[in-house]
User: Fold these one by one.
Assistant:
Number 1:
Amino acid sequence: MTSVSLAARDVSKAFFGNPVLRGVSIELRPGRVHALMGENGAGKSTLINILSGSLSPDSGSLDVGGRTASSLSPAEARQAGIAVVHQELSLVAHLSIAENIGLGAYASRGGRIDYSALAVRAAELCALVGLSGDLSRPIRDLPLGERQLVEIAKALYRNPKVLILDEPTSSLSARETERLMALLRRLKANGVALLYISHRLGEVMDLCDHVTVLKDGVCTADQPMAGMTPDEFVRLMVGRDAGDLFPAFESAARAETVIDVAGLSAGMVQDAALTLRRGEILGLGGLVGQGQEDLLLALYGAMPARARTATMLGAAGLVHSVTAANRRGIAYVPADRKREGLLLTHSIRFNMLLPDFGRAVSLALRRTSTERKLTDGLARLLTVKGDLSRPVQALSGGNQQKVALAKWMPQNPKILLLNDPTRGVDVQTKREIYLMLRRFAQEGQAIILLSSDTPELVHLCDRVLVMREGNLVAELPHGQVTEESIVAAAMGVSPAREAA
Amino acid sequence: QSHCVTGTRKPPFSIGWANIYSVPTWMKQTTDTINSEAAELKKQGLVSKLMITDAQGSANTQIQQIQSMIDANMDAILVDAGSATALDRVISAACAKGIAVISFDSLVDSDDLTAKIIIDSKEWGRDAATWMAKTLDGKGNILVLNGPAGVSVSEDRRAGAMEVLKQYPGIKILAETNTPYNSAPAQEAVTNLLFSQPKIDGVLSLGGALSAGALLAFERQGRAPVPMTGENYRQFLELWKKTGIKGWAAMQPNWLGAMAAYVAVQALDGKPVPVHVNVPLPVITDATLPSYLARAKDFPTDGYIYSPYSQALFASYLAQK
Amino acid sequence: MMPSLYWQIQWRRNRRLTPLYGVVLLLLVVYGWLFPGLFSRAGLAHFTQSWFPLALVAMAQAILMLTGGISLAVGSLVSLGAVVAATTMGATGSLVSMLLVLAAGLATGAASGAIVALLRLPAIIVTLAGSFIIGGLALIILPRPGGMILPWLSAVLAGNNPTVLLGLLILLVLGWKFYLATPGGIALYAAGENPVAAYRSGIAVEATVIAAFAISGMLCTLAGLFVAAQTGSGDPVIGTTFTLNSIAAVVLGGVGFLGGEGTMRGALAGSLLLTVMINVMFFLGMPPVAQYIAQGIIIVVAVALPHLLGRRLAP
Amino acid sequence: MKALLRSRPLLTTLVVLVVWIVAGFASPGFGSWPHLRYMLELASVIGLVGAGQTVVVIAGGIDLSVAAIVTLSTIALPLLSWSFDTTGAIAVLGVLALSTLVGLVNGIGIAWLRVHPMIMTLAMATFLQGLLILMAGGSAVTLDNPIVAWLGSARPFGFSACIMLWIVMSGLVLVLLHATPLGARFFALGANPLAARLSGVNIRATTLCAYGISGLMCGLAGLLALGMNGQGYVGIGDPYLLASIAAVVLGGTSILGGRGTYGGTLPGAVLLVTITALITVVNASPGLRDVLFGTLVLGLLLLSGREAKRR
Ligand SMILES: Nc1ncnc2c1ncn2[C@@H]1O[C@H](COP(=O)(O)OP(=O)(O)OP(=O)(O)O)[C@@H](O)[C@H]1O
Ligand SMILES: Nc1ncnc2c1ncn2[C@@H]1O[C@H](COP(=O)(O)OP(=O)(O)OP(=O)(O)O)[C@@H](O)[C@H]1O
Ligand SMILES: [Mg+2]
Ligand SMILES: [Mg+2]
């Protein structure tokens, strides 16, 4: 053992009798990027919560800076130079970006927070992670992607010796991801020990030197990255052979338009024109926070909007409320499941039924048996395992996302507005979701897919619209969609909007 | 010359009525008597306007409102105090500005004002307890029903009653209660006591609607009602008659308000007014009960049946030493 | 030059409250117009005295609500403060008595906070039970209104000169601003809005909550001390109405029920609105019925104004 | 955690039973059936107000106007009585409609004007106070509404009519909360209004329903209080504001919304009445009695009311 920055030895953890980690060991070394891989619910976040002092293990020990302890407190972890970018972001919504970045570790002068020092340092870090704009904005006003950048900046603020990142890129676009990768490489060169969790295989293989794979709370691999192939990875995580991640592209678009709006303005969105046809999958890309989300919300009636002309599903005019949208057959899956998608303290079953409550017009009593059948079916479809009466907050992040998506299935919506639907979802499930989207399209549903995961846009979409500063700046047909073309359009490098 | 009044104030006078809380029916009835007295005095050219404030039960707000009355330079301020001591300073301030301040009903402790229209709460308690002791021949188990704790009227009545009861060792206090001066909470408390006290010979109720609640409690639990004191609350008087108990009721007549307005004008008008204006405690007995009930329909069902009043009556009390 | 980060943050927090400030200002102008004496020394003094105790309890309530709590014991604590001051001042002198008052608030507050934070009981019901216990103590100490406050103290705090009171208020607000700009102050917001995030960021959430309760209790008994000075005596039930009024002031001032949202300025503006409204209605010569109805309407309008004006706040 | 949460109502019920048994041994009259029945009668009024309060709190709000609505309905009953209405049914329906209407106005202020529930309902309470000054002591006639009198005092089969009404209403409320779509929407709205809205819950309609139900329940409670007291008066509703909130929270419903059940409010209401009764029969100074009351509430809360641990 040469130098070990942080290690867990044989740790186990159970929640209410359900073992989540069983004798897992992991060793982080300075100047090495360590990948932690596994399916949704494999126990990755639990392990890093133990490493960072947010949870205490039931058994096993931790080695920190040459000392062995049975558990850590968050304060001790911080003293040991451990910083975490949490998957479920640990930001305070009503405080400003800058205050969040420094939270719990402010430099103070005469007892007071040194705001000017904080401003300087926060601005520096924001530039580093690629977050622009006013640092006094409260977190609640930021789209998810930007929150993720703040969370990263917050971890960096602590000058960590050990940096743990739990799906830091799950809502970042290619451009921000690239920047983050460069940053992490620099940290690695400076001797920081990194632990990196992601469901985006490409990133992991690019960045990481060593990998630990968890399956059902047990370590199934702990080896150098060199020589690993994607297929091998999937086999280690899932236990069987992987197929292709993306189904073969085959357009199902029909002639009939379901959305035709022009001059749409809402929130950041200015004067956007957009058509969507039955059976079409329309991608929405660009850097984070360029107004893509506002566009979806406007079409969903969840945000005040106006349009010069609008026809949606044959009826004139925009929808002006969510209930009206649902009635017309429009459904929306938000990216920030915790805030916008789920009732965290309620059961998985209750969450899956949510839109059905909204739709039931009669005051007749709910029938438990029907509800049970429905939810059991959805759980099987999306491989959400375990007791459905557990609160949804007890699910792993990826599985929560599945629940947020599942609830719309019984509605058979005619238009699906998806805001990063595979955020934090493991490869296996991603594949299932992609297949499902294809099937929906073939059945004639129209889909708008806002995605930060560029390969999704490349492989799934009939067309991709790219947004920049609230404007639709490019429209790329399937064949022309590449990672480069999207980034170029997003950065304003490409000429004006190309014709479809 | 009366206390506070400087003689520079000329009729018609402006009067402020600083009510502690105008929602309860007793207060509404009182305000009505003040209104009609003010109307009368207006006709006589003595009053120009009547300004009413409502402190919503807060002594602090009452201070604020009296301060506003001082700021508006009212000629007189009538006060039903939310606290016996809290208004001392603001009342002194009013007095210092030559404003006639009249305290009635819930009195202030201070004497730095034009007049207090006194129905002695201690005496109230003494008389009630004396009646009860005599009725029980100095021997028996009683309940004592008090108003809210920490409020001077309630504490003073109780102090008076205890003074008397000490002299009757044969009378045993089974339990005491503290409730707002309302019938429902009193009924609840007495009912609970009925279950734990098999033998009760009398209920010494020290005010308001408490006795009505107590009688209802006896009735609803099928217990034979017992001798009871009380106040001129209409529901109590009606139940008193209906159940045929031996009863006794004192009265805090609502026309104390009208009288306060009258006294204020007298003082401002240069008539000498003593700081302590005593009003003999009006009492209702089995004998006088019918005369009150005969007028019941003129009063709200959840109100108080007070005795008739006139300026002549007020004048006679003022003249009393 | 760009305003500094600190001021930018402050400005953002304030912006949402502009309509409320507008209503308060309007009422103040109307009041000053109806009663020009307001601008005299004594006029200002008296108005400040009316406002001061409510301002203090609003601050006390705001601190708790920022940490995601609430107190129904505010009124009892005010009574306790008044009673302790009025019963001890004669025997111990003013300084010791004042210290006793503050200590009583700190101790009861910290005890409630400890019960809430360490035993994990809901603040609303703990403080409801606490209101009976504390109110009962006040009654035991002083069963009937009485006691006394040294006249010089009454004169200084509640005489015809507003300087001391305004000074005290400014001192408190500055104290609060200072506290807010310390790591402990921000911890208050963080622990209220997102305790898990606060905990993960290394903030001692329990300690923060207990500190908030303690400070809040002290502000309440301080209000009690002032009420005693203002009235020259003690009254064991004088504080009762402060409980609901403090909550009204704070919620009017835009402090959220779920913690972490809102400002002390808002709470103070809310308390000012409730105070000035009473005087304005008096000088407009409204009868009690109209006072109640107008009060209900003014309160709703002050809060609904942003929506009525078509301005949209984030849901 | 889940199992413990679910049994909060059960724990509260157990606490009530233990208190009853212990007090029954200490004082025989306390544990007698007529006394227990009487306490249930008292609890029925708190329980009904608490039913509306539970619904509102679960839906993420709070209703501070319950006391005023209860009073309003007792004062309004005589005003809505006509001589041709011999059964009193029209007056009763009129009162219930009026109280529901007040609740709906609360809902409109909250859902459309986006006024914070505390502010809206507090302002409504203030507004109603003004109205009560106008109404009270005016043309009020003695209560002679047969239905209300029956509700307040009848004991068919030795069981009080008001308790039976309470049981029926409890059943309805429990079904509403836990077995209807509307009930589910209350929970969704209280747990996360934004997520509920994006999932197609009609926030405005749901809010309106919650406050309407609260108004209706207050109206019913007012009729019961009126029947039991034989006489309405201004202030008759005052005790029910804090009592209803306390019953809700004692019963384990989260004051922050989204979690809870009326099944907890039921024993919560009984517990409050029981503690009050206990304190009444204790011979002590008023101050000491208050201290005892608070300590008992706190102590019993420790047995039944701990929140789940954070980590
Ligand atoms: N607080 C909790 N209470 C109960 N169960 C929990 C809790 N937190 C996590 N679990 C369970 O522990 C298991 C592991 O969860 P964890 O969050 O560590 O998964 P993960 O590997 O991070 O998954 P993902 O990739 O989806 O984020 C899951 O089955 C989850 O349901
Ligand atoms: N507090 C709330 N939180 C979340 N959503 C809300 C809230 N209140 C209302 N909504 C929902 O937000 C949607 C839009 O609200 P908004 O106020 O913009 O509607 P509106 O019809 O434009 O209002 P108005 O009719 O007052 O002009 C409505 O469908 C409403 O159900
Ligand atoms: Mg995870
Ligand atoms: Mg609109």
Number 2:
Amino acid sequence: MTNPMLELVGLRKNFGGLMAVDELDLVVRSGEILGLIGPNGAGKTTVYNLISGIYKPASGKIIFQGENITGLRPDQVANRGVIRTFQIASLFKELSVLDNMLVAFHLQSRAGFWRSMLNSNYSRHEEKRFRKRALEILDFMGIGSLKHEHTINLPHGHQVTLGLAIALAANPRMLLLDEPLTGMNPEEVNTMVSRVKQINQEQGITIIVVEHNMRAVMELCHRIAVINFGKKIAEGVPDHIRQNHAVIEAYLGES
Amino acid sequence: MNKNNRIKSLLLLVFTIIGFLFPVIRNDPYTLSLLLIIFVFIVAAVGFRLIYITGRLTIGQAAFMGVGAYTSALLSLNFGINPWLGLLIGGIAAGILALGIGYIVLRVGGVYFVIITLCLAEISKLFWLWWRPVTYGNSGLIDVPGFSIASFQFGINKIPYYYLSLIIMLVALFVMYRMERSRIGIALHALGQNDVLAEHLGINRTRYRVLAFTTASFFCGVVGSFYAHYIHFVHPDQFGVMPSIMIQIYGIAGGIGVFFGPIVGSFVVAGLTEFLKIAKEFQPLIYGPLLVIIMLFLPKGLIGLPQMFFKSSKK
Amino acid sequence: MNAQDILAMVINGLSSGLTLMLVALGLTLVFGILHIINLAHGELYMLGAYCVWWLSELMGFNYWFAIVLAMILIAFLGVLMERYLFRRFRAIMVPSLVVSIGLMLFLQSSILLGTGMGDKEIEPVFHGQVTFLGTSLSLGRVIIGAVATVLVIAVILFLKYARPGQAIRAVAQDAEASSLQGISMNSVSRLTMIIGSALAAAAGGLLGPVFHLDYMMGFPVLLKALLAIVLGGMGSVVGGVILGSLVIGLVHSFATTLIGPEIAEIILFLIIAFILLIRPSGFFGMELRT
Amino acid sequence: MKKFGLTLMVLAVSLALMTVVPFAMAKEKPVKYLKIGCNYGLTGVVAPACIASKRSLELEVERINKKGGIVVGGQRYHIKLLFEDNGYTSEGSVAAATKLIDRENVKFIFNIGTPGLAQTSVTEPAKVLSFLSSSADQALLNKKYSIRVYPLVQMNDIALLEYISKNIPEVKRVCLLFKNDSSGILNSQILPKLCAHYGMEFIGDELYSLTETDFYPLLARMLPRKPDLIVTDVGTGAALMAKQAIEKGYKGFFMGTTLGADIAWNKIGDKVPDGRFLGPVVDPGSKAAPREIREMTKRYEEKYGKGAPLDIAYLYHNYLMLVVQAVKKAGTVDDTDKIRDVMVKNTWDLPWGKTRFVGKEVWGVDGQGIMPVFVSAWIGSKKKIKLLKVIPAEDVYPTFLKLFGKK
């Protein structure tokens, strides 16, 4: 529980004159669920974009399991096991639910170009295995019955769930969840929270969550880091954060 | 689902058999000459679609046909290289060029890519026109040798050319179909629909797009080279913007969403073009509005036609 | 190479860039609102020229009056095209490409067959040359440059200060937000098509006497206009297009004079491709699919 | 919305039917036909020339048939023209030629433009006489059944330069500004040699693209080299170029070397001073033109109104007349070997003038018909073409052979 999974060291990113992330240091421990919260425009999404490789930092380092992954492309980051979800359910809209899942197995495929082109035994076997695993994950997430639906027809809640299922299918070591509870009713929120916990406990996946639903965050996370104006203003267990002055000020100041 | 697939493969088999038996049933050089050119454009149109599914719309595929045609024609005219080898070399030349160009241009998306490829088609034509010491510019390359097997010259006989083009088309279609059906195809589709998400799932977008682009262009090069040795004449106008647009029409009018769309499109639109030639110079007056009408009623292409009937009868 | 030669190249480039601007401006407005590439836009230019030829040479109208009349007629045609064809393909790029090609073939062919095979010409209104900073060019071109500039400025002012113009800009920036504010999408796209078609017709009518009339004259101009607007930023408002057109004119002029005409065209296309590559993200990113 | 679409569809279908039905209903009459195929680009880049040629050929054939057709070997034939559109593409040209030969069994095919050359790959093995109209130098190379009665660029150049060297001695520096088609390419190859032959200095060549309309940059490149004579064609593009050259202060001469629309010269209107633009054309309506061409022009304008056909349309009357006369003389309509033999061994009286066949020394076959060269000048102040001299082919051909024949 104590060795670091991901370390952000002195991370900086600016858009023109605006400093979106400023000298951010953050350590994510292996096996924990870390909540990343902050007012709107605090730079949370930018942090995700930096980790996952959409942006290159102006300075600073990102270290994942001892390896410097600063400035890698998103697919290279994903290759190392860091998988993220997106704020607005981001799916492959014209593919079926099952095909959506199969995209995610891409990383685990060991059948090379020729073997998959020639439809070799190995690749067929592999695909069968992936399908089976995909169905398992869908069942686990409770949307197994929708496997042949086109994602475009799914209700919002299911789309978000599928987004998480896809991320899981990519065999992550670490998940970056971006507002997974947006637009859900309380019941759905509860289900989602318990599922995320289950993923964390049963599969030992380290998770970072960005979320505005404070109650859920407090319930879900082992630790919470608060940022504002791209700077970390507090870090600690939920109870500690709840009473932190700087945090209350940041949120009050916003509203 | 499974049944559907079986019907599809059965239909496919039937069409392939018809394709192979056609010259036996009906040895009509004119029809054969039309069909074998349609086969050439089918390859280009399906290639156009292969690039399209990765989210890139190209109006420049004829440029790669040109590369194949000029490479192979020039090699056979100047160095006596066998046209059979030329087919492969033409394809490889187009493929290599596409690989290099693809790595640069495929990073650009949306309408910019459309226009860059339009530029590409125009540049290639201008280039063949300009490089006169080698290509004879607008005079074209005359008397490009044809194919032969041992001492048998294909000559004026359309049948061997028909079979050759049929085989080339089947091979190209098979490869591109396999590619789309394999895990590579899923990655390509994923890129087309949401390349940010795909990239975050570990799919290297440039590499996969270049793969699709290169594959499509390789086959374009091969059929371009075939074209040169079949027509025995290579002219820059055949590989500029207008032919590229034609390829694109075949693909879109047929139905870009489905693998068989461009095939249907090539047959129907090219057949229509040929049929309308009885109207002589008035042909575009009918052809143009027909294209508009097809797209107005079938925005998903001709392949949507049976579906439409199916749905309306269901109601 | 002395200063005078360079000046001549600049003037030649500007003179062709100014006329390109009119076509490119209309095209980019239509793209900005309807989000389709109208490949038949060049045909509106061609139709404008033929319309002026028909009105001034056959019907005997005054040249300037003929241009205004042609602008109205072609704008009306544009409205029809928008209403029955393009509106339903708003932001659906793929089928609309084929639609515009069908339209292009139809318009070209009907002009060819409708006006006969012989060459047509519009009698120039202005004769004589002007010598400007040691470079001589025809008076006609100077006038065209001036009229084009006036038209473009009028469009800029319209977009900036008139209410319908502001609506166009609003929709170009954010269609959804604008429609929430009660701007009618349909009337904006109709207005855009009117402006675009009228500008293209004006360009055709203005250039008719200077160049020649040909039923295929639209496509080369369309190609260059496309290049100009991607250079300036597709769908971006006026500034980019003006810059883009002038750059195209200048590059073409310099490259032709310094290196030669055929290679100049290749260079022109290469430069555009190169610029697009180094600055793809600098322009508005357009998603291809709907 | 739906209704409009439906109406549109109905309209289009009826339009299609209206065009198609008359073709389908035209039944064959029980007369023997001499079929001539025309592999034309009725759509595409060369459509105007092809359509003009189609119309004027049809008029001519109608006239011949009305007079009872022609008699070959005791049998009366009507002439039937079969037009096939190749869309100005190579594959279209091959398909059209295949259709004409295979379905209609034609023995003579006319074509226009360079991509049409692709048809020779079909016509040669089928022993079908192919009448070409491309300036491409290799078009005839070792092609036994290919015939070209199309003014050679080389011959025009020689005739015009000879005229200029004799009559306009101040021309010393020559440059080439030409569209980049096959005649342009040919000109850029032959002109340096020709200029040297006539004691002129060749100072450079630039070929521009076919769609070019703005020549200011190109002229800014060429005019500082101070040419006295700009060699170009007499088409619309060249007229524009000439007009703009004068706007740019050019004071010298122009020489067109190919045929083109005479009306294109109107573009330069009064811009070019009288007699400064010379070309191998003839005003088809004027008295200077051969009688047959004059009559054709009249007939064409009666039927299709203003806008006289292009010069190129008349060229095809050469082909028509050649075929008509040759089959009569050969006494057969389908033995192409014999017809070709008769064709190349005789001298013919064609609309364009006396024509005989040459070319063995250059292309390996005698497939090139040579005819008189008309040297004309544009009189801008009167907006008309003035014929200066008709130079017989015999006066030009020896020079051609001396300079360009293969040793």
